[in-house]
Amino acid sequence: MEEVPDPVIQEPTDAIVRITSTAICGSDLHLYEVLGPYMHKGDVVGHEPMGIVEEVGSAVTNLRKGDRVVVPFNISCGHCFMCSQGLQSQCETTQVKEKGSGAALFGFSELYGSVPGGQAEYLRVPHADYGPIKVGSELPDERYLFLSDILPTAWQGVEYANVEPGGVLAVFGLGPVGQFAARIGAHRGYRVIGIDPVPERREMAARHGVETLDYAKGVADELREMTDGRGPHGIVDAVGMEAHGSPVAGFAHQALGLLPDKLAQKAMETAGVDRLAVLHTAIDAVRRGGTLSLSGVYGGQASPMPLLTMFDKQLQLRMGQCNVRHWTDQLLPLVEDDADPLGVTDLVTHRSGLEGAPALYEKFQKKEDGCIKVVLNPGA
Ligand SMILES: NC(=O)c1ccc[n+]([C@@H]2O[C@H](COP(=O)([O-])OP(=O)(O)OC[C@H]3O[C@@H](n4cnc5c(N)ncnc54)[C@H](O)[C@@H]3O)[C@@H](O)[C@H]2O)c1
Ligand SMILES: [Zn+2]
Ligand SMILES: [Zn+2]
């Protein structure tokens, strides 16, 4: 926690938002550890914010002071070639070309443009003439907050998993993204099997009609046994590069932590740093001809993949940062529905002011005290 100067309007398309709620994401945990070498002193993290517009630049005609908005984690212009294809996470106006990265992201280190993030009292929102989602004033923040990232991320993950009507979807990882992916699968009428080593995460998923399994060596066999020997039609990997059960890469992570930043960056860019237990298990478990959808983030350039099996099984693989704005118009009525069909009000386990962030980062990473999702309320 540090005091920094309040942000100011820099471009006519900027807005300044006073943050009322801002969540901690599993992606923040990568910055907290594996991607640490890309972080610099004074970087402001956070990319799941919402709040009240305080000020707008001269070119922002869609927003006014006092509007309540949710801010998508990717910064996109809305009118370039990629945005017009619904690929807002590849926006050509904000791409971080010097790092070879896609659209700039809030609070995500030099890899994604070093844009100050939203775990703060105030946020400067570039391209505010397109990005922010205007919402009503009656429902509590938590109904809307997850439109910033994890709800559209899970939606895209399930969409990409390409499960046929009435088919079987498996979701590896029942963190916040996996919880929503599993619930979205159930909402669409799929049979959903969720896998996670943490008991309270399995219990939460089970409350929403999801069958659950612990993660163990034989889990691919278990999945086949549950599905006529064939395996699930589609699998969402909502775990990513820090999967438990991958001892070798675990050691690589520790070694990276001991290197100076520049050397560690080099190692990230040339060595296999991902913990691949889940990805390789999913390749094994998915039905022949099925689809793997990676919502979980991977970070290495040289992580080994079982291409023989992938080719032989005729798999499809889809992945990527979520194109948040592409999905939010469909999701808005679902979060505003009084029946709460996706269960957005059953996810947050810990809340605090900004001052609680350091302790809650640690709790969330270590999965202590039943911690599943943290929301910070600056100024509350
Ligand atoms: N694609 C995107 O746009 C996007 C957006 C948000 C988050 N993410 C990524 O999604 C992933 C999940 O994020 P989250 O917020 O849910 O965080 P999280 O860290 O809480 O979730 C990860 C879950 O995986 C479980 N897990 C670990 N090892 C496992 C194993 N071997 N088998 C099964 N489960 C295992 C953990 O217990 C945890 O519940 C992260 O990689 C995050 O960066 C991607
Ligand atoms: Zn996130
Ligand atoms: Zn664009």
Automatic annotation (TrEMBL):
At the top level, the lineage of the source is: Bacteria
Question: Where does the Alcohol dehydrogenase-like N-terminal domain lie?
Answer: 12-131
Quote the Pfam families the UniProt record gives.
ADH_N (PF08240), ADH_zinc_N (PF00107)
Q: Does the keyword Cytoplasm apply?
A: no
Q: Which cofactor does it need?
A: Zn(2+)
- Cite the entry's keywords alphabetically: Metal-binding, Oxidoreductase, Zinc
What the entry lists under InterPro entries is as follows: ADH-like_C, ADH-like_N, ADH_Zn_CS, GroES-like_sf, NAD(P)-bd_dom_sf
PROSITE patterns, alphabetically?
ADH_ZINC (PS00059)
Q: Where is the Alcohol dehydrogenase-like C-terminal domain?
A: 176-242
The answer on whether this UniProt entry bears the keyword Zinc reads: yes
Check the record and name the Gene3D superfamilies matching this protein: Medium-chain alcohol dehydrogenases, catalytic domain, NAD(P)-binding Rossmann-like Domain
Return the similarity comment.
Belongs to the zinc-containing alcohol dehydrogenase family.
Q: What is this protein called?
A: Glutathione-dependent formaldehyde dehydrogenase
